[in-house]
Amino acid sequence: MNIRNVYTACALGFGLLTLSVSCNNTNPSNQTSNATADHESHDGHNHAPGEGHAETSAMQAPPAAPASTIPDFTFYVLKSGIRFNKEDLKRDGNIIFILFDPSCSHCQHEARDLGEHYDRIKHTNIYFVSMNDPALMSTFFETFAKPLVDKDNITVLYDRNADFINNFHIPSQYPATYVYGADGQLKEHWSGTRDVNEVIDAMLK
User: Fold this and answer.
1) Distance set, CA 23 to CA 66, 171, 191 (Å)
2) For the packed helices 105-116 and 196-204, what is the interaxial angle rounded to 10 degrees?
3) Which residues are within 8 A (CB) of 198 and not within 5 positions of it... i.e. 6 or more apart?
4) Cα 173 from chain centroid (whole Å)
5) pLDDT tens across 121-149, in order?
6) Is the peptide bond before 62 cis (omega within 30 degrees of 0)?
7) In whole angstroms, what is the distance from residue 11 CA to residue 9 CA?
8) Between 9 and 83, where is the model more confident?
9) For a surface tag, which of 30, 37, 94, 169 has the fewest beta carbons within 10 Å of its beta carbon?
10) Fold of the CATH domain 61-204
11) Is residue 138 classed exposed, middle or buried when 0-12, 13-18 and 19+ CB atoms within 10 A define those classes?
């Protein structure tokens, strides 16, 4: 799906790494490229006001395996724009990160399914993270998962500087789910879709 390839390339345009990830794409590819110039010409991508590129001098190779403990990061709460760090995570239950693309049909379906079973996940802490344009992210739950809107345990975070793929993991498919315990230790992760009952069971372990 070209739109997701373009979106991810845009998100990584500030560095040397360009990643191709799509909904349930079984053959994602990584390649190195000096993509900064091409980044500015991608169709369908607009930076948030005032958004800049991350400094390349501090970049490290992204982890090959998911981080075994929750790493440091800086995201931004979608609605308020407030900076959100590791210290802001709720620690009263499992901590779940879902890396998603608002235009990915599999991400839309998973969010819808979780909304339909909200009573089962209301005691977990779920963080939906995306590198996409905040304008696209802002309508995602209203459109596909209204039961999740304004829930205390559901937080939507904008990953402006691609901290997730640089510090947590580069998944092979969207959506990508990472379940950490309250102690910050990784319990389980997977890329792509699963049956909603399997997803919820993993979130509750």
Assistant:
1) 19, 11, 9
2) 70
3) none
4) 11
5) 999 999 999 999 999 999 999 999 999 99
6) no
7) 5
8) 83
9) 37
10) Glutaredoxin (3.40.30)
11) middle
User: What residues does each domain of the chain span?
Assistant: 61-204
Does 12 have pLDDT greater than 80? no
Q: Which amino acid is at 84?
A: F
Q: Supply the pTM of this predicted model.
A: 0.75
Amino acid at 106: H
- ∠ CA 119-70-90, nearest 5°, is 40
Pairwise CA distance, residues 126 & 90, whole Å = 10
If you search the block for the tokens 């981080």, which residue do you land on?
67
pLDDT for the residue 107 = 97
Exposure pattern of 145-168 as b/e (b: 16+ CB <10 Å)? beebeeeebbbbbbbbbbbbbbbb
Phi-psi region of 40 (alpha: psi -120 to 50; beta: other; left: phi over 0): alpha
DSSP annotation of 184: S
45-76 residue pLDDT tens: 333 323 343 443 345 666 779 999 999 999 99
Q: Which two tokens stand for residue 65?
A: 């395996």
Of 29, 72, 81, 35, which Cα lies nearest the Cα of 164?
72
